[in-house]
Write a structure and sequence with these properties.
Elements: E1 9-15, E2 20-27, H1 29-35, H2 42-57, E3 67-73, E4 78-86, E5 90-97, E6 114-121, E7 126-132, H3 139-150, E8 155-161, E9 166-173, H4 188-197, H5 201-206, H6 209-217, E10 222-224, E11 228-229, E12 231-232, H7 238-248, H8 250-259, E13 263-267, E14 274-278, H9 279-292
Parallel strand pairs: 5-12
Antiparallel strand pairs: 1-2, 1-10, 1-11, 2-9, 3-4, 3-6, 4-5, 6-7, 8-9, 13-14
Helix pairs in contact: 7-9
Length: about 300
């Protein structure tokens, strides 16, 4: 199948001979938009790009209503890592850190680190969160362990990022009924893993998705599905910021207004959108909160 989409795209595919399903994501402008929001150290920029690619990959084979996010917090120099992909293919991400970052930047060595994958729709109040054990130095290894425990099916992830692109490949072994000839081919998964092991970061970053799949798996009967376009996008809104202010309560909102000359300004860290509330705005949102009895969602 031919397509003109070579960047900011998610490809789902099936290796029919091997009984393996996969997803391949290649980010260009969307990743550069995220990476350009801060002067990230090289190692952290690479990790953030991998997380952004992974957030898109993880949406490939689920029915998503809302957002899927990958979030890591630690008590070390890497304070926060966050990447999100929505059901509309909108991506955003950021990281917070303190210098100097450890070298190498190993996830399993971060002190008091917690990683979570969250799926759901915040506005509808439906969310599922799974905690991810950090038992590998890199993000791909961490997510492979997560799949082994949560889905009990083998998975292989390859992630890479530089200043221009963020890319990711995910492979999952199907149950016995999947894939033509897969039941009889007991070596199929091992064979696909050997092929995948030949893939290096430089090749992955340089080659377009369809070319990459052909080079690796042309003997495995690759079946490509319709590509899914992706783009940078932020889910922030004035309504969400207002809900956050309501959750703070009247005393804190009024104290902030007094300290900031009668207005509150909130900047979105993802897209730099600024939201401004004066005393009239604050009174309206606080009065609304009192009328509904809702505290809002921070």
């Amino acid at each position: 199948m031919e397509t003109v989409l070579v960047e900011d795209v998610l490809h789902r595919f099936l290796l029919e001979r091997a009984g393996v399903r996969g997803a391949l994501v290649r980010l260009g402008p969307a990743w550069r938009e995220v990476a350009g929001r801060a002067d990230y150290p090289a190692a952290l920029r690479g990790l953030l790009g991998e997380a952004l690619a992974a957030s898109a990959l993880l949406t490939a084979n689920i029915k998503l209503d809302g957002e899927l996010s990958v979030q890591l917090k630690s008590a070390g120099a890497l304070r926060l890592l966050f990447a999100e992909c929505t059901d509309q293919g909108r991506l955003r991400g950021l990281a917070r850190w303190e210098s100097p970052l450890p070298q190498p930047l190993s996830l399993e060595a971060l002190p008091q680190a917690v990683m979570a994958i969250t799926i759901g729709n915040v506005e509808r109040g439906r969310r599922y969160q799974g905690l991810v054990e950090l038992r590998a130095p890199d993000l791909a290894g961490v997510l492979e362990n997560y799949f082994a425990q949560s889905e009990q099916l083998p998975a292989r992830l390859v992630l890479a990022a530089d200043g221009e692109h963020a890319v990711g490949l995910m492979l999952q072994k199907l149950p016995d009924e999947g894939g033509h000839g897969a039941v009889q081919d007991e070596d199929a998964w091992t064979r696909v893993m050997h092929l995948t092991a030949t893939l290096g970061a430089a090749e992955m970053l340089a080659v377009t998705p369809e070319q990459l799949l052909y080079r690796l798996y042309h003997e495995e009967s690759v079946r490509l599905f319709e590509p899914r376009p992706l783009a940078f996008g932020c889910s922030c809104s004035r309504e969400r910021v207002a809900a956050m202010l309501r959750s703070l309560g009247r005393d804190e909102v009024e104290a902030t207004l007094d300290a900031q000359d009668g207005h509150i300004e909130v900047d979105c860290e993802f897209c730099a959108q600024r939201y401004r509330f004066d005393r009239v705005d604050a009174e309206h949102l606080l009065r609304d909160a009192g009328a509904t009895g809702a505290s809002g969602t921070a």
